[in-house]
Amino acid sequence: MPSETLIDPIRTLAALATQKKTKEIDMNMTVLTHPAPDFTTPDFGAIKSKQNAAWSSGDYAKIGVTLQITGEELAEAADPAPGSSVLDVAAGNGNATLAFARRWCEVTSTDYVESLLEGGRKRAEADGLDVAFQIADAEDLPFADASFDLVVSTFGVMFTPNQQKSAAEMIRACRSGGKIAMANWTPDSFIGALFKTLGRHVPPPAGVASPALWGNRDWIEEQFSSDAQDITMKLKSFNFRYRSPAHFIEFFRVFYGPVRKAFIALDKAGQVALYKDILDTVNRFNLATDGSMIAPSEYAEIIVTKR
Questions:
Q1: Does domain 9-19+40-306 have CATH number 3.40.50.2300?
Q2: Burial class (CB in 10 A: 0-12, 13-18, 19+), 296
Q3: pTM > 0.90: yes or no
């Protein structure tokens, strides 16, 4: 039976000390392809309820704040005019929100996890930025058609279960000639590999595709090309820097909802196996040679200009 008690990471690390070091990254990793048709109709409402509980269970803000540079770079790539109206979808604790607000945009920051929005609000107040915050479901945005000059998301909208619906909502909320700007982890990235590892131990709900599809060029073009006059996709990299691989795993186990929930869903033996597999995944990507962790994770910086 699953246990609410998490394993002791120190003892687990000691038990794994004799494990062989994993091989270098295979540069010929298989490119993600579309999954085989699944005729199961997911209960998206139930799935979103569980996701909300997962994201609320840790403290994603402690993870998200380390990614601030990706929001700043996305804002630069989007090149907004001062005074532009911006909708941040699945904003989390507000990395893109703050970046666009710093460029004199009128930002509405949305998420369906209230505690994350509250964290974003505190950050905006601390920086003296005027931002509107609103609870919103990325699959059913409470805004009229063509309401915003830019609709943006950094590692947020990609985690919605009904991916086609959330893509359509971003398009709908953006005005003609406006931009949809996103930063999404790619299938073969470090974070893509982490989610594959989690999925081997705690399978995702039937009928729900990988979030990493949002970092796949073919899938992005399939969702957005009919409404786009231009799509650019630039591959970039973010370095996850931690004191050690063990520090990374413990930090994510405590604060990153999906990882925390995966550990809680397993019994002790399952938790030990998951810990080992995450450690192996980290070691495949880790460039540090001093016992610390520097794991580059590829992501796609995407700008869609709406027709």
A1: no
A2: middle
A3: no
